[in-house]
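Weekend entry, working from home. Most of the wet-lab plans are on hold until the incubator is repaired, so I used the time to fold the two sequences that have been sitting in the queue since the last round of cloning. Logging both here for the record. First:
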Amino acid sequence: MSLEVREVNKVYNRKLILDRINLQIEKGEFFVVLGPSGSGKTTLLRIIAGLEKPDNGKILIDNTDVTNLPAGKRNIGMVFQNYALYPSKRIWDNLFLPLESSGMGKEEATKRIEFISKRLGIDGLLQRFPGELSGGQQQRVALARALVKTPRLFLMDEPLSNLDAPQRVSARKLIKEIQEEYSITSIYVTHDQTEAMALGDRICIIDEGKILQIGTPEEIYDDPADEKVASFIGNPPMSLLDGSIIGEKGNIGVRAEDVILEEGDMKGKVINSEFLGDRYLVHISLGSEELMAFSKVRLREGVEVSFRISKFKQFR
């Protein structure tokens, strides 16, 4: 199914949370909404789900206006940040209740639960309670509960935020595999750019209720729309510099991998070097500005280095 968000506005306590949001999401697409805390991304997801109504604008699913359609009638699966499992119910019941409420018979519901629980590796947990599970297991149960209804649209709100780093890596892989296997149009909200870049077919960057840029991970990384996007995307982010250092007007953005050390006639002093495992991230002072570059060896603080910039992004 396709989804369109058309001219959506939302105001809370006289504060504009969403400002004329327009999105076109294609059938089967994995679409990520990326932004800092308070940017409006969760509010947008809740409006799409039907849990809140926009003050203005429309939500269209397969070209049908569902703005005023109750959440329970949209056939949407949603995974919340806290998983929202029923603590007093066994895992089997957590999966069964959404199917029962939709009017499905127990026999068909049981078949679906058995299938999705085996696919997500939780078939041995069905008689346990949520409090008896690890964070990773609870996250898989939450995914299963959202998918067991075979939804038209799959929404995820920071679903990995409660997992530790190794669990997040494996969970990202699982989510991507499931999304591709079922070809479910999916919208994933996160503040973590690593998740966004790893999962998204396209990424929408939102801040203060406004869309800053929409594009593929490669487009946003290589060609950020403005300095705010440039400083938010990439690890490390772009170094933002006065373009006059290379004879350009305005400001420029430079990726660390595009700074070639020990070549060229530009010079700076090393502030420090951070060990990253396979290389060092070197911070270089250019007087009042700072440039980041990668190096295979540690460079001592205060050492003067020469360098050249092989590629940059110019901002007007």
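Second, folded right after the first finished:
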Amino acid sequence: MPKKSFYPWLVWFLTALFFFYKYLLQFSPSVMTSELMAAFSVTGAGLGNLAACYFYTYLFMQIPVGVLLDKFSPQKITAGAIFLCALGAFLFSHATSLYGACFSRALIGLGAAFAPIACLKLASVWFPPRRFALIAGLSMTVALTGAVNAGYPLSHLVSWFGWRDALVFLAIPGLVLALLFLVIVRPKKTSPGETIEKTPYSIFEGLKIVLSDKQTWLLSLYSGFAYAPFSVLGGLWGVPFLVAAHHLPRAAAAATVSYMFVGFGVGSPILGWLSDHFGERKPVIYFGTFLALGAVSTIIYLPNIPAFWLSMLMLTLGVGISGFLLCFAMVREVNQLVLAGTAIGFMNMFDSLWEAVSEPFIGKLLDLGWTGQLAENGSRLFSINSYHAALSILPIYYILSLICLYFVHETHGNQLIGEKKAAIPPKVV
């Protein structure tokens, strides 16, 4: 393959590896919940707040990250962000107080905030628009392997070496990736007939343009509701729920949750390709949302599901959730290309907001239903009824997401710029 055509894929792959690393760190607490509760003497709500510290900085940084990547070359910024993630993991492994642990998780969130936006921004720079949904889907496939490795393999590392040493092992590849990114990735050079668009707007002008678009708000609301169940089940409460409700050992529960990540990783490029091929976004998103609603409701409420079918339901849930990724293509299409980073950052902020709110909120609901049972290490044990009540918010999220989606305009995979996008009438699917 000629160097010219190979290099964009190399840039994409390194950025996708950062996306992979982001998910690996984000979901790592899911296999060490009891250890963290015992180490820092926290309740379910306290554990939720500890995990959510990641999302607080992640949420705060979304729009600034988008603006920075629109205004400046992303190479050094992204390398520095990867280093922050690795540093946060190392500090978390050595935390001796809850405050230190919260600071470390917040530092990881600060660096991780750059991963999805940098990946999609660089895809906008190095690849033609017609490939964007497919590249975004492939990016999620690579990223979700990080979530998979945060399940079953990481649970064994925790069992063999303890949660602290397991986190040290996670810090090392981050340092290596930061160095590789700094050495290999270069700004895209212009050539005759080829230009790179940089935003002509000031920071506040660009923000005003993005925030004044109603479709951007609707897509962001949908994205937040549709993605939150993925984070809740994959990040903190999925493994303990399966242990309590379906009587699985922790390693088996982590492996079962991993099927959701596999489904997401498989579904992302397939649904992205289908959407690009047929020139339709909303029908594919509707399909995924209804699929996810049915799967998550069955997992939560149906008792005595055999292990095989529970894994298949998790796989189905992941495929359904992956349809939300098309919203990133749509928000790019309803905004100017030079503001792609800002628009994607704004949407990702909503995903982070729902993640930051949902995990501690569900933890609080679990605490309200706690019957006083304790595990051998002193952590709280929650009943099946408590999990059913707390996780009922997830199907509600999907119902709200469908309401938002109804009012979203179909883009047909076309880039709608400036006043052109206002002329597109709504299409009800």
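Plan for Monday: verify the second prediction. Residues 67 and 182 are 20 Å apart (CA to CA).
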